[in-house]
Structures are given as C-alpha cells and as structure tokens.
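Input (structure):
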C-alpha cells in the first residue's frame, strides 16, 4: 500500500518506488525522487497509519491501547519528570489512554527526527493532551544538543476505537487531511 500511495503522489508506477535508509534505519525515497516527499509508517494490532508530507520531516506512531499494570513504571523509566507528574495526576481509569497518547507523540517525534532511540525518550517532553484536534500542538525541542532545536507540530490521532496515534511534522502551518482505506473483502 505504501508503494501504491507514494506512486500516486509522485505520478509514477508503484514498482518504480525504491527506498534508501539512513544510519538508524529510517527509510526515505531513493535519490532519483529528490526530496519532494517524506513519509512514515506505523502499524499495531491490525491497523496501519501512513503519513506523506511535502518535503518536511515527518513521523507517525500508532498503538493499540491495552490494559497493563506496569505503565507507571515504564513512564517513570522513560518519560520526562514533567510527563510522569502529569500522568500521576490522571484518574486510574484514564491512565492507559493518557500513557499511549504520550508514548505515540514521543515515538512520532523520534521517527520524524530519523534517529530513533538514539535520542533518549526522557530527554524531551511532549504536550500531554489526548483530545484529537485538527489543530496541532507546538513542540519546540532542544534535547540536550542531541538534535538541533527545531519547531514541530504534533497532532493527536484517534484512527479507530481502542487506538492512540500521533503525527509529528517539522514546522508549522500544516493542513492535515485524513483518508481511510479498507482492504477489499475476499470472496472465496
């Protein structure tokens, strides 16, 4: 599906789409396509999110929200102190959703930067709202000189019931458009 979508945006056959990978494994379009498009993909529990942007670094993350008892411990180990304090103030029945809202924003940002977990999760904080909106939250991250400070837009996504998602894109002033694609039913 990713090849098909990129081919449509680039007005070329999907079979012509090839990728290159940076030192951290992040895919990009091969050089013959220039820097016209940036993309990212995430999947969880039978659902996938694909984001395609015009020339700006972009990342997307998707997680199936499942109940577990160790989210507070994971947050304490990997989230910033401000994020942990915010999560600790949340009623327990909303904790898993808030945890994944934070997690997906952090992952989307790391994927957009292209360096993955080389940037520690606790070295920056994300805004901790969980309401999906078509207006982004600003994130200006100077994460201990690991990545040059840049301004980012973060979008909270709810692609389906029981899922949390986030989109991070460099810069501001973006217009978000969303489409849903369903696999055709197979007749046997």
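Output (sequence):
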């Amino acid at each position: 599906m990713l090849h098909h979508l990129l081919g449509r945006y680039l007005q070329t056959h999907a079979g012509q789409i090839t990728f290159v990978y940076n030192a951290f494994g992040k895919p990009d379009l091969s050089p013959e396509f220039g820097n016209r498009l940036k993309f990212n993909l995430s999947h969880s529990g039978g659902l996938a999110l694909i984001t395609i942007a015009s020339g700006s670094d972009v990342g997307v993350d998707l997680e199936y929200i499942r109940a577990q008892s160790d989210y507070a411990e994971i947050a304490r180990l990997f989230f910033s102190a401000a994020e942990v304090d915010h999560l600790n103030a949340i009623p327990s029945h909303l904790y898993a959703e808030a945890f994944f809202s934070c997690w997906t924003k952090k992952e989307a940002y790391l994927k957009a930067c292209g360096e993955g977990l080389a940037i520690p999760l606790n070295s920056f904080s994300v805004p901790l709202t969980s309401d999906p909106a078509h207006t982004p939250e600003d994130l200006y991250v100077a994460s201990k000189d690991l990545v040059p400070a840049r301004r980012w837009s973060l979008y909270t996504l709810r692609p389906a019931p029981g899922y949390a998602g986030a989109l991070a894109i460099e810069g501001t002033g973006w217009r978000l458009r969303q489409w849903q694609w369903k696999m055709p039913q197979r007749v046997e």
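Notes: The mean pLDDT is 86. Strands lie at 19-21, 27-29, 38-44, 47-53, 58-64, 137-141, 150-157, 163-170.
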